[in-house]
Amino acid sequence: MPIIQARGIIKEYPYQGDAVHALRGVDLAIDRGEHVAVVGPSGCGKSTLLNVLAGIEPPTRGTVELLGDDVYALDEGRRSALRLRRVGFIFQRFHLLAVLTAAENVELPMAEAGVPARERRDRARELLDYVGLGHRMGHRPPHLSGGEQQRVAIARALANRPEVVFADEPTGELDRRTGDEIIALFERLNADGTTLVIVTHDMHVAQRARRRVEMADGIVVRDHGAPADIASDR
Ligand SMILES: Nc1ncnc2c1ncn2[C@@H]1O[C@H](COP(=O)(O)OP(=O)(O)O)[C@@H](O)[C@H]1O
Ligand SMILES: [Mg+2]
Question: Ligand 1: which atom is nearest the Cα of residue 23?
């Protein structure tokens, strides 16, 4: 059974008395354990789709089942709880808090989820070790390189042991070598059982995903490598 199932997704943004049709009818099912890249030209709706799938942005029409819940039928409290506890999100520009240390940034979602302080500290250390930054626990983001900041952001996204991680152009701000390290980290994460949905311009990143969903102009135009059971479901 898919853990993400989007049906008939349409997203329109009002714009100067008119509407921008960001998504024009997307159906997509993603299974547990998949590693999916969403690709396509700038402006084709990738970020919008990712936000809709992740429970961040309600579609104009259509439904999204995320981890068994009809996510936009939930009230805001339940929806943010789902996002906080079972979903991770990684942004192109990291979105770390500059005044907090790496460890404190990673602890933040755990604090929100009510994890006790001692356990938070231990888990933050474990996660920063996992992403290769155990030696940078006390550093603040302005004193870290782009690649290091993205590792902290990944550790933060993993804080509450999400089942699905969404990433929007996670290597977009990084040079090739640093980007490759981030991809390797994603591969390890997927091998450890986390479902990954990654929006990317970077063919390098896309080639290393097992499935590639290609978008153009607000729709899915090709879908390579979907699991057979999902494909036959359509
Ligand atoms: N908040 C918004 N208001 C108006 N138009 C938007 C908004 N967000 C995105 N769009 C438009 O929707 C389309 C898809 O955008 P986006 O999903 O960001 O594309 P991508 O991530 O593939 O570059 C674009 O035409 C963009 O300008
Ligand atoms: Mg985008």
Answer: 14
- Smallest CA separation from ligand 1 atom 16, residue: 45
Ligand 1 centroid distance, CA of 49 (Å): 10
Predicted local distance difference test score (pLDDT) of residue 231: 55
**Cα–Cα distance measured from residue 94 to residue 149, given in angstroms and rounded to the nearest whole number:** 6
Q: Measure the CA–CA gap between 31 and 92, rounded to whole angstroms.
A: 24
* Residue ID of nearest Cα to ligand 1 atom 13: 22
pLDDT tens, residue by residue, 51-87:
999 999 999 999 999 999 999 999 999 999 999 999 9
Instruction: Identify the domain containing residue 213 by its residue range.
Output: 2-231
Q: Is the pLDDT of residue 202 over 90?
A: no
> Are the C-beta atoms of residues 213 and 230 closer than 8 Å to each other?
no
* Helix axes of 146-157 and 102-112: crossing angle, nearest 10 degrees: 20
- When divided into structural domains, the chain yields a total of 1
CA–centroid distance, residue 123 to ligand 2 (Å) = 31
Task: Give the CATH number of the domain where residue 86 resides.
Answer: 3.40.50.300
Q: Report how far apart, in Å, the C-alpha atoms of 49 and of each of 30, 134, 186 are.
A: 13, 34, 20
pLDDT tens column, 115-159: 999 999 999 999 999 999 999 999 999 999 999 999 999 999 999
Task: Please name every residue paired with 207 in a beta bridge, in sequence order, or none if there are none.
Answer: none
Distance (angstroms) between ligand 1 centre and the Cα of 228 equals 31
